[in-house]
Amino acid sequence: MLLSHYQDLLVEAGCDEAGRGCLAGPVFAAAVILPPGFRHPTLNDSKQLKAADRDKLRVVIEKEALFFAVASVDNVEIDKINILKASFRAMHLALEQLSRQPEFIIVDGNRFYNYGSTPHACIIQGDGKYASIAAASILAKTYRDEYMQQLHAVYPHFGWNDNKGYPTKQHRDAIREFGDTPYHRKTFRLLPEQLELEL
Description:
Blueprint: E1 12-18, E2 27-33, H1 51-64, E3 67-73, H2 75-81, H3 83-97, E4 104-108, E5 120-123, H4 131-154, H5 160-163, H6 169-178
Parallel strand pairs: 1-4, 4-5
Antiparallel strand pairs: 1-2, 2-3
Helix pairs in contact: 1-4, 2-3
């Protein structure tokens, strides 16, 4: 069972992102403020869950969370500012959209840009430790998957309904055959012979 909160004195939001390692599409992020003492038996890091379980938990999270918001930064901005900065930008956008601003933020990972003067803690593998980060990971992942499913209808060759823009063999073979799209991240290593993205 995940921990309810990192600290108990301040209103706390958990943040996480989805889609950093993709070759196409936006990076999504979510911010979630859960009720004190919130617990759910199947809540976990979104990567540890099946898609059907994530979808069920999304309904629970959106119903039970005190406040939540989801935001994204598109591939054009990712190419301009790099994926790390874009991930933090998406988290900040999600935080800005919360109806109640948090007094403390916990973030999955080991780096984060200050959100104004609000204190924060970076927690490695936090999406497997704290309920609000896990909830944010599920919202970010399900919203992004839904978006990539919609793009798949326009660009079916790339298999985005399945790989969601990640660098699978199918995806790279399609880039090789059909070229890239307006949704591909041009600064990423779309094909093996290209240079690695430098952060």
